[in-house]
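Pilot study result, target chain (110 residues):
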Amino acid sequence: MAIVNQNITTGATVDVLTVPAGKSYAITSVLITNTGPEDATGAEDSRFYLYAVTGAYSSTASMIVNNALLPGAETFTLDTEKLVLGAGDYFKVSCSGTNSISVVVSYLEV
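Predicted structure:
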């Protein structure tokens, strides 16, 4: 098993994991954490999008999570389904709102 970590600043879209030629990866879990402090007023909220890109990128066809709200100091976990990506496919994350987010992707070569 391998892990890749990425900090994504607000307003940025980042290719977090790209599968190299001749390989296939199964993404086993994704953890996304709002790096801001806990705040009941919503002032520290951020939002994110997740994309699994197979072939050409499309902001709608590649989307797997749409504009999810992530309050300050909270963590989103995606681990009930496994995503299998082939050579050249990639996993992309976009962040908006007040704080950056920390993304941890766990995967296995298949």
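One observation from the pilot: The beta strands are 2-8, 13-18, 25-34, 46-53, 63-70, 75-78, 83-85, 90-97, 101-109. A full batch analysis is planned for the follow-on phase.
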